[in-house]
Amino acid sequence: MDGVGLGGDDPEVNPFVTAHLPNLTGLLGEGWYLRGNGRIHAPRASLIPTDATLGIPGRPQSATGQATILTGQNVPQLIGEHYGPKPNTAVANIIRQGTLFSEVTAAGEKAALLTPYPQGYFDAVNRGKRLYSAVPLAAVSAGLPLLNAADLRDGRAVSPGFTGQGWRDYLGFTDIPILSLPQAGKRIAALAASYRFSFFEHWPSDRAGHRGPLGDAARHLEMIDAALGGLLDAWDDENGLLIITSDHGNIEEKDHRRHTVNPVPTILVGAQHAKLAAQIRDLTDIAPVVRKFLRRNTHHASRITEESYDCNI
Predict the structure, then answer these.
(1) pLDDT tens, 268-310?
(2) What class does CATH assign to 22-55+101-117+140-312?
(3) Buried (b) or exposed (e) across 78-113, using 16+ Cβ within 10 A?
(4) Where along the chain do its domains lie?
(5) pTM above 0.85, yes or no
(6) Calpha distance 204→207 (Å, rounded)
(7) What is the spatial distance between Cα 154 and Cα 156, in angstroms, rounded to a whole number?
(8) Rounded to whole angstroms, how far apart are CA atoms 101 and 119?
């Protein structure tokens, strides 16, 4: 969830306060979205307030935050600043050196970025008119194909906006099937089960922080909650680890249009959530937790199959 932090309790500032979020509240308890709560351990999930500033002055940015999540390295510290939204040469070089995507594929396992891109995106990249953001750059650097409209049409991908309606309304793909929000969440879970490691990127949450009124931001959060309801209903806790996190704060403070220095919520769902949550303090700790989970579960079979253990971020 790009641009989602833990904020204060003022309903005139924080859209979480007024948004109706039954699925996340049922998972974590009332007021889970407030920055002063500390760690939350519930029966099915743990929430860790996670430092996105990483000891570097300034407001965290998407390129360095996402690169940190995918590598486990303190990328802002390595390049001397928070940088974004797209990677500069220094960030791109760190990503190309290796991420969770490349580690999984090098081990002979399947990985995927589950969010698709329209042909215009590929054309712009090929013409040098557009840069990859950190997550798709990590995927292609690992030798993975980015999913496209055909993958979305045939159910092999899920739109960043969940339902696919935006592909019809703004991109002209009139044949894209429309999913309900719970259906989209269930599809993410089903797709994740066919990979050793998968990543779903919901970037519109950052846009909702930068633009629009408070009420629209609250409705956006309700949309996310409905999709997560379907994902949580379909998630296999015993055989998978679901990680929901963010690269920086933004949407939780609608009295300005900038990123925040608030901690971000990292939510772990799965049988080992409490033990793994104890190892997370900042964004550098997420990749090591993924690695530990994947290694720990390897001993259950001589070779992990597609149907066995999976990790989805």
Answers:
(1) 999 999 999 999 999 999 999 999 999 987 643 323 233 345 6
(2) alpha beta
(3) bbeebbbebbeebbbebbeebbbbbbbbeeebbbbb
(4) 22-55+101-117+140-312
(5) yes
(6) 5
(7) 6
(8) 23
